[in-house]
Amino acid sequence: MSLANRIEALVQDFNDKAAMSFSGSIRVTANGEQFEKSCGYANRSEGIHNSANTRFGIASGCKIFTAVAIAQLVEQGKLGYDTLLKEVVEHPFPAFDSRVSVHHLLTHTSGVPDYFDEETMSHYEELWSAIPTYRVKSPSDFLPLFDKQEMKFAPGERFSYCNSGFILLGLIVEKVSGQSFTSYVEEHIFRSCRMDDSGYFAMDRLPERTALGYIGTDTDWRTNQFSIPITGGPDGGAYTTVRDLDRFWDALLNFRLLSEESTARMLHPHAASNEHTSYGYGVWMTIMDGKPFKYFVMGSDPGVVMLSSAYLQPGVYAHVLANVERGAGMIASGIDEFLLDAR
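Structure (tokenized):
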């Protein structure tokens, strides 16, 4: 079976079981060739179809941009991975452990309280009953959600996925660089990679070719406009395209964003999530036979799901971006199996 036929079958299999059909874009680059497939609508009301040039929200998939920003500032000598949070961010955290470092934050081993703790919480939309989404526009706007809470555990004790940790990293980027977080990433990462269709767009001012996120079923749906912060930040919420993600991975893995040494540190398995999955700095990795099979980022928000992978074979990338809540993981796993069989 060809890759094209395999992906068609994966999408059809998902649609046969799902309440809302897959809607998004898929791109696989391998052996100098590209395969692209787009499904569904970027805007259902206007009948605008998704395409390879559609900009999708990627939720937590953009934590890797935060990690690159930190690594760039470390290379410039403006901070270190062992720099403590308290040495950079002046905001009071009365219950935080004073030993929390940049390394701890990057690897989800800090123990700081998470404003959306995925170990105990499941409904992201409920966060915004107290703080309206339209008021959440910068990293500091998240602080009231967690800044006075108790630590979950001592720094370095274990891995626990933490969105708040990346909010704090965004505050560090702002303090050290003198720029807003989103401006820093757009200038020093997106523009450097020629990711011309990517950005931190406000949901009430989306540019052309940007997909709205959809929640519900094929016949009973609503957009995610009131379900996530109006503007993305260091823990999630940027918009990008499948083609721009090729450009990002190519720049990162060919040392155009960071030095070879910094890139190796970023892609090192610093913390294990389970037997086959580890975490570096802002990036996951699948471990097979004791070594990485691929590096990947993933994200999920109301109306958003994505998974973007860079395989150890040079120039092999796969991206599944969707403006619905399910499907990316299953399709990405099927692509993994195809590429494994083709080796």
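The two ends are 14 Å apart (CA to CA). The first strand starts at residue 24 and ends at 30.
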